[in-house]
Specification:
118 residues; alpha+beta; single chain; six-stranded antiparallel sheet; 6 strands
Length: 118
């Protein structure tokens, strides 16, 4: 003997699903959305036993204006390391690192440079 409940359950499921709207709603995609550009911010960065100040903000075209203060004119390599690694942490999507875009300049006791995610 057949069970009369199974067709009723199937009929109810079809009726419930037919009421779904197929209009513009959620899209299924495998791509992660791009993160919003980081807003201008200032952060204390602890590096090699000392604390430095990092100021950065969007400069347009995917680049960021960055300034590292608290370092001497001889610490260019350290300033670049602080800026690019911090950009990767604060603004770049997962797995991306900060890359220098141009040469850093030491002025007004700060290392200034532009960097981008890459």
């Amino acid at each position: 003997m057949k069970n009369p409940i199974v067709p009723v359950i199937l009929l109810l499921a079809v009726a419930a699903l037919s009421g779904c709207d197929s209009g513009p709603g959620a899209r299924i995609t495998r791509d992660k959305p791009a993160p919003p550009p980081a807003a201008a911010r200032s952060e204390p960065i602890f590096y090699n036993g000392k604390t430095y100040r990092l100021d950065f903000g969007p400069a347009g075209g995917g680049a960021y204006d960055m300034a590292v203060s608290g370092m001497t004119a001889k610490q260019q390599k350290d300033a670049v390391a602080v800026a690019t690694s911090s950009l990767g942490y604060f603004a770049c999507p997962d797995g991306k690192r900060g890359k220098l875009a141009g040469n850093p300049v030491y002025a007004d006791s700060k290392w200034r440079m532009q960097a981008r995610c890459g």
